[in-house]
Every structure is written in structure tokens, then in C-alpha cells.
Amino acid sequence: MKTLIEPFKIKMVESIRQTTEKERIEILKEADYNPFRIKAEDILIDFLTDSGTGAMSDRQWAAMMTGDEAYAGSKSFFRFEKAVKNITGFKHIIPTHQGRAAERILFSVAVKEGDKIPNNTHFDTTRANVEFNKAEAVDLVIPEGKIPTLEHPFKGNMDLKRLAEFLEKNHEKVPMGMTTITNNSGGGQPVSMENIRETGKLLHKYDIPFFIDACRFAENAYFIKLREDGYQDKSVLEVAQEMFSYADGCTMSAKKDAMVNIGGFLAMNDETLAMNSRNLLILTEGFPSYGGLAGRDLDALAVGLEEVLHEDYLKYRLRTAAYMGERLTASGIDIIRPTGGHAVYIDAKAFYPHIPASQFPGQVLCAELYRKGGIRGVEIGSVMFGRKNSDTGEEIPAEMELVRLAFPRRVYTQSHFDFAIEAIIETYGERDKAKGLKITWEPPFLRHFTAKFDLVD
Q1: What is the pTM of this model?
Q2: Which domains are seen in the chain, by residue range?
């Protein structure tokens, strides 16, 4: 059949409040043109993030009913630990309430001022946690990963030549190296098995631990199965197990590919690093067998790690992004191609060529999509990754100006996506009327979450 149906049935529904364009214009003003500041009840289709926004399955809800809420050594923890070890093979599994808590703990115990952390591309919280510890987050994605419309099967790959040169000069200041799978900041693009393996080899040459940011490991594994020679006959689990075999540990926001609403973990092989991490976990998150989570959350997470590896789900997941991407591209809208697994990334610089980076075209597009269709996306450009010149205070723009439309797992149907596509195309037709934005207030870290904007005069 040509039609790919959702591989699930709907047992419970949540009503969506309809708003008018006139109402949304006022809501935007009240929210200072920042989608994060808009109330969820005023959103028609929420593509802000795929983190913790998915719908859990009946099996996950059932597992929550068997959650063991013992403070120490609960049965839920051991079920969770078994599920994580089955996929990653790492010896030490440390639960946290979400991914950025795992990052904070890891970088707090392993990173010091002046260190340098190479990655294909650090995402926002990863970069912020590195920089909070006064270290430098170094992005080394391949050149193809910075050209939105260029077709390449693994645009998330680490640039191995640049990594080798970087390590030769800086290895004494590198406490660990990372790779993000899939590469969120670069369009949800996958990393090949060969690239993961060779990245590990380069780091291990200097005895530097290799960590994977594993938020979307299952999507990455399925891309490898589809695109990389030698993996077509392997299960997604086998591909994932091989990916992790080349690393020394991982961080994970389980709110992505473990399909839960809260949770994460830090995993590793090094016993001393694990001991130091658990000590900080006890101080800030909770006892090592719950790590800031309820037992029922750990049980739901364990089931989600099994369900995310089902190929019918992954086929549907990747096809959803491809479907929207094909429709937008056919309408002349530039996106990052090929589409990734969890989102479609619109090239806001191409969408609004008349709006300079200093006026944040991605943030403008987010505001316009909400005005036109009640759709909430997120800017991944100069608001999120821009810098200020320390001497002049002027904005240093990001390399790309993108808007990410991230899809909650098992939440929206094809009609929702068709509506969103229609709204994006209509917004594109009105692109010449859009005005730039200026920042009126911003915090010192992760400004995109809470910054305030206003229209440029």
C-alpha cells in the first residue's frame, strides 16, 4: 500500500482550543514574541520540541502501575537498569530526572576550567553545561552538515580530519569527546557507524573517553540500517548495540527515544567516574536507584526503550518527517535536506532574505507560524547559538538560521501535518510583509528560553 498508517490506535484524546488570528496576534505581543512564553492551551499544533511531549503506550501506563516506590533498591530501578544495559552494554547506569541533569553531573565531575570538549555539534543544554564549567564546546561537524539543501546520507558526521588535527594540538586539555546522535542542531541528521567507530579510535589514541549524546539513538540506528552498507539485515537493537560498543559512556534525555514524559540517565564503564557521579547525584538529584525519578517513571522508561526499537514505529517516524519535507520543498521552501528523524528544519535565512541575522529571521518565522496557524516551533539560529562580541557588545550570528518543527511521538495524525504544511506554505506566500525582531531583555545563559523581543521599527 502507498499509504503508511500510524502504527497505533488512539485510546484517549485531548481537545485542542481553536483561536483566531486576531487572538494570536495579541497573544504574541503578550508573550514578547517568544514561543516559549505562550501558554500551551493557546497552541493549536505544538512542534516546539519532541522532548517529553509524546504519548505513552498502554504498556507503559500499565508498567507505571507496578512501579516500586522504595527509596533505595527498588524493583523498578533494576528493570530500568536491565533495559539500558541490554542496549548500551555500559557497566554503570545512573538515572537522572532528564538529560541536562546527566550532562551537568558528568561535566561537573570530569571537566575543569580551560578544558575543550569536541563534538559533532553541541546542542543548547550541552553547550551551556560545558560553558558553565568554564570550558570550551568545540563543534567539528563535516562541512556538508552546514549546507542546508545539500543531500548527504550522514550529515551529522564528525569531521575526522579536523578532529585529528584538534586532538594533536589540544589533547592534554580534552577530558572527553562526544558525538550527538542524531545531530539535533544540524537538522536531526544521523551519524554513520563508520564515523562513530573512527571517532572513538581517534579519541582512544590519546586515552580520552568517548561519550555519546544518545537522545535519539534509535532513530540514528534505523538510519544506519537503511543507508549504510552491511547493516540492512541487522536488527535496530543490534545496530544500536554496536554504536555504543565504540564508546565509553553516554548521556541521554529519555524524554526523546525512550518515549517518556520525564527521565534520563548517565551511563559509563569507568568505576571512579561513576562513583564521583553518584556522589554528586546524591547531593543534587537523589539516591542512585531513583535519581530524581519516581519508580513508576523508571518502569515506563524501561518499556519505552523496548518499544522505540520496533521497526514499524521507526519507519512511520522517519516517513512523517520526509512527508512534510517533500511537501515544503515542492512549494519552494528551503529546508535541511535530507530530513532527519524527529523534525523538519526550515531555512529561515532563505525564507526571509530581507531580514538580517541581527534581526533574528528564525525567531520571526516562529512568530509568523504562530500568527498564521497557531503552530509553535523553535528557533535554532542566532537567538539560540549567537554570541556577543565581548568588546563591542555586537551580535555574532550563528552559521545557520533555522526553525525546527519537532514532532511529539505518537501524538499527531496526518491531518494535523497537512494543516501545518498548509499554514507554512501560506506564511511563505506572505514572507515579504514580515518584519525583524530585536531583543529587549535576555538572561546570561540559554537566552532563547526566556528572552523578550519586540518588532523592529
Answers
A1: 0.92
A2: 21-50+310-455 (3.90.1150.10), 58-307 (3.40.640.10)
